[in-house]
Amino acid sequence: MAEEDGYSSRCDLCDTEVIHSMAELLLRGLATASVDSTTGDIFKSASSVAVTVKTELENYLLGRTEALIRESVDGGEDHSDKLMKASTRPTEFLSDLIDDFVASKRNVLSHVSGFLSSESRLRKVNDFMQKKEMENVWALDVRKATAETILESIDIKCIFHCPERFVEQNELADHRSQCKFRVVNCKNDGCSASFSAIHIEEHDSICPFKALPCDQLCDQHVMRCEMDKHCATVCPLKLINCPFYQVGCETAFPQGNLDNHCLKLLQTHMLYVLQATTRQNATVDDMNQRLQLLEKAQSLNEMSGALDVRSLTLITKEQEAKIKKLERDIKTQEAKIKKLENEFRSRNA
């Protein structure tokens, strides 16, 4: 909305990307200050102090910003470096101010060694941010309004906001329709991004939905996000191997030339197939011969094993026969000995 100051209407358009970044910093600052100021406090929670911390943070940032501008204008303390940073890197300047505010809100327990860099603290801050955003404790539009107020105060070079003023409302309306900070939508099909007109070229250079000439120089235009897939699959200029590569044709060519290549080299491909078939048949014959040799070798081994078993059986039977003959001979000798003993006793009697 244009502001009326009694003499002119001001174009209050700002760089939407910078405003959005600053608005996110404000929410993170609120969450961090609320968590750090109540760490370990059994009587307070981050949620119970969020509203108060929000007001204090907003007043602190606006006060510090106004003080910096006022002192610089009055020619008092030299703040040239801070003012230069504020006017050229506003998000960094705001981040520094928020860090100062958060440090001032930390209680004793939050200063415990390791807590400020712990994953637990970061997780609590992130969870609290999401909770406050859903509860709309500090609405995005309100945060953006605060960010715009701060940005317009520190942007002395008018890099991120429009300073133009007009006497007539129609002049203001005409200007806003052409202002470099007006909000525009991406014109690429499928892209829903919106941004300040000053970033049109920057966005267009990275927009994933931007239609570009094929990287492989085919006659198609392809979205940036689909380019790699197009070039690797359907692009007619993608290099492929001949379907007869396995049988001898090692030619590579754009896949759009496949039909022409196969038609042109039909006889050559048939020759490759014939040669491959001949080699395959020879290989089959060789394998058959090897298989037959293996079968014969296996048969011989089995026969050899069988002969070995029969030989051992015969030897065993022969030995058993010899043992039985020895046993019979022993019994015969024992009988003769007993007969002689009996005869000797009868003579002596």
Automatic annotation (TrEMBL):
One Pfam match: zf-TRAF
Swiss-Prot/TrEMBL keywords: Coiled coil, Metal-binding, Zinc, Zinc-finger
Superkingdom as given in the UniProt entry: Eukaryota
Residue stretches making up the TRAF-type domain: 203-254
Secretion signal, residue range per the UniProt entry: none
Coiled coil regions, renumbered to chain: 309-343
Protein name per Swiss-Prot or TrEMBL: TRAF-type domain-containing protein
Source taxonomy: Eukaryota, Viridiplantae, Streptophyta, Embryophyta, Tracheophyta
